[in-house]
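INFO batch 0412 | record 1 of 1 | parsing
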Amino acid sequence: MAATHTARDTLIDLLHGVERFNTEVFPQNRELFASLAESQSPDTLFIACADSRVNPSMITQTQPGDLFVLRNIGNIVPAYGEMLGGVSSAIEYAVSALKVSHIIVCGHSNCGAMKALLDPDPTKLAKMPTVASWLRNAEAARAVLEASDAGPASVRSLSEQNVQLQIAHLRTHPAVAAGLARGTLTLQGWFYDIASGEVVVLDETSRTFIHVDEAIAKLQAQQAADTTTP
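INFO prediction complete | emitting tokens
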């Protein structure tokens, strides 16, 4: 009978991973890490769910130093003043100190936070009072779905609505509001489907999610227009 994989085995596996990083990965990327040793200058603040299945660097195919990543349950951004703490300070630091040009809020399929919001289990939430309190920052997303005529709410539809809500919350943060007013900052919402690997992008004009190729085309058209404008 095969031995059971224990919690200690998992820790040992992680340490073996560190060994491989030290002996194989790091030497192959020595120049990159040398350039990052004393400072960072990421262009993008990437706000994602803490779900273990969501890997921002893999999804975006970026290198260390490219993304300033902020993760929490449900990719939530409390409105400014509601819960000042780790999320608000990370946003403020990213915009004011690191001078990021973009903030992306990325929701995902099969999100446990959205499941709990869509169909709350009082017994489970009673054992997680902090989670229950945190999810109140997404409550308006469920209210919007319940008031719409889009049919029965699903985890995906709630996740997409939650992305829109959290972008609205971002706009209440002073550093973000200032960056938007100066034209030095852009906000974008994404939804990542784990099973298919597809990422769709929130179109601010239509308030719908569009395919990546369409989002790229729109941005390229805007870029071309900016270039030709006197």
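INFO post-check: The first strand starts at residue 44 and ends at 49.
INFO record closed
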